[in-house]
Design a protein that fits this description.
By secondary structure, the chain is mainly alpha-helical. The protein is 49% helix and 8% strand. The chain has a three-stranded antiparallel sheet with strand order 3-4-7. Strands 1-2 form a two-stranded parallel ribbon. Helix 17 crosses helix 18. Bound molecules: glutamic acid.
């Protein structure tokens, strides 16, 4: 048997370090066993999936050197590797499940489901589908389908007993069927859900080991049931602990930069990021701290992975990155990295037109450009607040953060529209809105043109600077309280409609 693992990112946002973490361990496992790792794009959520996100995920994993053997970009024997191109395969599987009595159509309306849910919560029961449509006769189903009533397909869950399976990391896991909902496997739009699509693909793509995040452990019984209904043997499962913020909550962009692009833009080097990701879940038998994928793969034993949620600590990553610059690279390599990163004519050439007006001598250039090379600029809360109310500044920063999250395109025009929109909605002049942003982004109340600079800075550094500014305000006791934030979020939802596009 050839070992085959996979990573299956959903292209719904910036490339996440959690995806890189999964890729690293899937690769180490596949390499250790002379196997292959494939990359599959799980884009069944059509409303949230974008090609930009897919491209960004692929290129950031490549930057890290976490390469795959088969995927949407390089093809392979078991393609296509994008789920939206495999709909017929899922339809066939769903039909098979219906015929075998493992799946059934459900016509319940959102209102009815809400009602059921409300009652279950009132009765202190776990909210789940009550099986209403299981009682429909063949004729009723046909009639409803012919009348064009919208429907989903659900998985029929056993009414008693439990599902027992072996997790490569945790040993035997047992979950009662009573805890499992009648999972929707095909939505009203005809698209399959993750659960159905991923198991069908894992089977057809001959995946032998599913190594994924622990948030899927409770879904595994559904997956095993799907395999059974389709008459297929399930693969082995290993659920890895999720990366955590320093406060132990699940790593989230609200508390930590989670985009791989942030680390690239902030001047980390890929080898150090990969080493750090490896070190968070795994210790080499000789306890060495500095290692690469190859060294990790040689001795890789999934059973040696730690089960505690590893804390993603940027300070530790910085320390490791520094060691790489000093111990692993020659000075000339560091220089080359520096040039490739931002000290190159292309990047500096984009800054120059913004700075030209303000130059008297060449030596004026670098101080002006510095904030575009920095990770986080230095400034005080007083500078940030200026003549405004601290709380108003905090609100504006938070709104900008939310608005930036919705941005699909990151360029000067969209950024300019974003700030115009904030000014309009808040009934302020643009020049009342912008001062705090100048400081948050550049560390100075006077700097290069803001929108052009932000376009060059990129979304990840920009968002991190907003978050840093908000944290500074909170640390100074003038930020948004929990209650204030909730209120602001409510107002924001009402006042700020759609994304700018
Ligand atoms: N598309 C899923 C995700 O992005 C993949 C989970 C899995 O590996 O099965 O989380």
């Amino acid at each position: 048997m050839t070992v085959r693992t996979r990573i299956a990112p959903s292209p719904t946002g910036a490339p996440h370090v959690g995806t890189a973490y999964m890729a690293l361990f899937n690769l180490a496992f596949a390499r250790k066993h002379q196997g292959q790792m494939i990359l599959r794009i799980e884009d069944t959520d059509q409303s949230r999936s974008t090609k930009e996100s897919e491209d960004a995920i692929l290129s950031s994993l490549k930057w890290l050197g976490l390469d795959w053997d088969e995927g949407p970009d390089c093809g392979g024997e078991f393609g296509p590797y994008r789920q939206s191109e495999r709909l017929e395969i899922y339809k066939e599987a769903i039909q098979k499940l219906v015929d075998a009595g493992y799946a059934y159509p459900c016509f319940c309306t959102a209102e009815r489901l809400n009602e059921v849910r409300k009652k279950q919560i009132e009765n202190k029961q776990t909210p789940r589908y009550d099986g209403h449509c299981l009682n429909l006769s063949k004729e009723e189903i046909e009639q409803k389908m012919q009348a064009g009533e919208p429907f989903v397909y659900r998985l029929k869950i056993p009414t008693e007993g439990s599902c027992v399976f072996e997790d490569e990391l945790r040993g035997e896991v047992s979950i009662d069927w009573s805890q499992i909902d009648h999972q929707i496997i095909q939505k009203t739009d005809g698209f399959p859900t993750y659960h159905l699509a991923s198991i069908v693909d894992d089977h057809h793509m001959k995946i032998t080991h599913v190594i994924r995040g622990e948030e899927w452990i409770n879904s595994t019984p559904k997956h095993i049931l799907l395999y059974e209904g389709l008459g297929w043997a399930p693969p082995s499962f290993a659920h890895l602990p999720l990366l955590r913020n320093p406060d132990k909550s699940k790593l989230s962009k609200r508390k930590n930069p989670t985009s791989i692009d942030y680390y690239k833009d902030a001047g980390f080097i890929p080898e150090a990021v990969v080493n750090y990701l490896g070190m968070m879940g795994y210790t080499l038998p000789d306890q060495r701290e500095i290692f690469d994928l190859e060294e990790m793969s040689e001795s890789f034993d999934i059973k040696r992975m730690s089960l505690g949620g590893p804390i993603f600590d940027i300070a530790k990553l910085k320390w490791l990155n520094g060691r790489y610059l000093r111990e692993k690279l020659e000075p000339k390599d560091v220089l080359n990295r520096l040039i490739k990163w931002k000290a190159n004519p292309e990047f500096l050439g984009k800054i120059l037109p913004l700075a030209l007006q303000r130059l008297e001598t060449l030596s004026d250039f670098f101080p002006l450009a510095q904030f575009l090379l920095d990770d986080i600029p230095n400034y005080t809360t007083d500078q940030l607040v200026g003549k405004q109310e601290a709380l108003e500044v905090a609100k504006l920063l938070k709104i900008a953060e939310w608005e930036m999250e919705k941005m699909l395109n990151w360029d000067r025009n969209y950024l300019s529209q974003l700030f115009q929109k904030i000014a309009e909605v808040e009934e302020l002049k643009l020049k009342q809105v912008l001062p705090a942003f100048f400081v948050a982004f550049s560390g100075n109340s006077i700097s290069l043109p803001l929108f052009d600079s932000l376009a060059l800075l990129g979304p990840d550094l920009a968002r991190t600077r907003l978050r840093t500014a908000l944290e500074k305000l909170s640390a100074a006791g003038s930020g948004l309280s929990k209650k204030g934030l909730k209120k602001l979020e409510k107002e924001y939802m009402q006042k700020y409609g759609n994304r700018i596009d």
